[in-house]
Amino acid sequence: MPQRLWEHRKALSMRTCGWMHKRIQSNSSMNGGINMKWGERDKDAILDYFFSKSQVPICILEGSYDIIEANDAFKTLVKNEIGQKFCRLTDLFVVKEYREYGMRRINLLRPLDDKTVHLRGSCIETSRGTMVVFEDYVMTNNQVTESLSEMNIEMANKTRELAKKNMRLQEANDKITELVNTDYLTKVKNRKYFYERLEESISLAYRENASFSVILADIDHFKRVNDTYGHGMGDKVLVRFTETLQKNLRSQDILARFGGEEFIVLLPFQEGENAVIVAEKLRQAVEDVLFEEAGLSITASFGVAVYRKGEHREELLKRADEGMYQAKKSGRNKVVFLKSE
């Protein structure tokens, strides 16, 4: 990486200028062990000493940035880097004035043939004018800066290209994940995905005492549909069945194909009678489905189970399965809720 050329003098930091401000404005000092009031003369004497002895550039301004005095460090800087006699600060530099931490600050900028001079100073008011102490200055090589800018542009372009590739890769990964978790025919979630969400719900119930329920549904006489109308019609029945269930569920509910003509629903934060109401709503919606091309209607049997804290998923699913079995045994097209013991 190109080396940036720095010439840095930091003999006086911004905190030092703040300290001088407070020190000069203090009510008293120790002189030979005797307290005495400080006046403007004492203040000017301290600043004059600092002005003449400091190795950092200092100038004194009045009016519209007129330079009325400068120390040797500032004169050397102007002479060596600018080659002009100073008269007004704005003739030599681009001046930006602002306040920082309650202190008046001045930034200077001056482009040369192959370098750019940056100065930053703090202002102290004196009886002669505004003393500006340039705590640090930086000189940058323009050729290096230009090369660095070109590198930055190239790097930005490569970063954008990499971001696009990462986005395409993420989209591909998302599609793969979706395929892995989705039933190829009905496009609802599969058993693998359902088990993952079920384990998350069990963990949430254990940590926060959150309730949830499951509904296990099985299409009645589905084998008869395949045998009578063919597997093509059987596939249409499965797709239409899942579409009907999905339309009557909340966005947070999870519908998955559990196997064959069995489907399962996870109802977060639903239990007892509320889960039964949802199951009954699904049953009635399925009952209203009609396949006009074959003069066929379908029904389904539903088993409802509410999670009991501390039980394993197999116990929960077994109760839902038993409920569904009882619904079929008692005539099909019914909802059976097996309450917890």
What is this structure's SSE topology?
Elements: H1 14-25, E1 28-31, E2 34-37, H2 40-53, E3 58-62, E4 66-70, H3 72-81, H4 89-92, E5 94-100, E6 103-111, E7 115-125, E8 130-141, H5 142-181, H6 191-208, E9 212-219, H7 222-229, H8 231-247, E10 254-259, E11 262-268, H9 272-287, E12 290-291, E13 296-297, E14 300-306, H10 313-329, E15 335-337
Parallel strand pairs: 14-15
Antiparallel strand pairs: 1-2, 3-4, 3-8, 5-6, 6-7, 7-8, 9-11, 9-14, 10-11, 12-13
Helix pairs in contact: 7-8
In summary, what is this structure?
The protein has helices spanning 14-25, 40-53, 72-81, 89-92, 142-181, 191-208, 222-229, 231-247, 272-287, 313-329, and strands at 28-31, 34-37, 58-62, 66-70, 94-100, 103-111, 115-125, 130-141, 212-219, 254-259, 262-268, 290-291, 296-297, 300-306, 335-337. The protein is an alpha+beta fold and 341 residues long.
Structural account:
The protein is of the alpha+beta class. 46% of the residues lie in helices and 27% in strands. The chain has helices at 14-25, 40-53, 72-81, 89-92, 142-181, 191-208, 222-229, 231-247, 272-287, 313-329; strands spanning 28-31, 34-37, 58-62, 66-70, 94-100, 103-111, 115-125, 130-141, 212-219, 254-259, 262-268, 290-291, 296-297, 300-306, 335-337. A hairpin with a 2-residue loop joins strand 10 (254-259) and strand 11. The two termini are 73 Å apart. Residues 1-16 and 26-38 have low confidence and may be disordered.
